[in-house]
Amino acid sequence: MAILTQSRLLAKNLMKESTRDKLTGFAKQAKGRVEAAAGELAGSSRLKVKGAADQEAGEAQKRIAELKKARGR
Questions:
Q1: Residue 7 pLDDT
Q2: 72: left (phi over 0), alpha (psi -120 to 50) or beta
Q3: Residue 53 class from Cβ within 10 Å (0-12 exposed, 13-18 middle, 19+ buried)?
Q4: Residue 15: band (very low, low, confident or very high) from pLDDT cuts 50, 70, 90
Q5: 13-16, long-range: CB < 8 A, 24+ apart
Q6: CA dihedral of 32, 24, 65, 37, whole degrees rounded to 10
Q7: Contact (CB, 8 A) for 62 and 25
């Protein structure tokens, strides 16, 4: 566990803020796609909506990364 935490801290310090935001956005979108698909299979409208919301949050995070990259962060 400590090694994983150290790896995350090292990656956090080595990556630009915009790159971290972009990766976070991609991860949120992927999570949302999985949740939406699971909701579709299970017939759960709550899970489908949560998945769609996560996908939108991921898209927003990626746009924030683009803005930060344009500002040089």
A1: 61
A2: left
A3: middle
A4: confident
A5: 16/68, 16/69, 16/73
A6: -10
A7: yes
- Report the alpha-carbon distance of residue 66 to residue 72 in Å, rounded: 10
Global pTM reads 0.74
> What burial letters (b/e) apply to 9-37, b meaning 16+ CB within 10 Å?
eeeeeeeeebebbbebbeebbebbeebbe
The total number of residues written for the chain in this structure? 73
Helices (H), 1-73: 2-14, 17-42, 45-70
- The token pair that represents 26 in the structure block: 């991609």
Boundaries of every domain in the chain? 16-70
d(CA 26, CA 32): 10
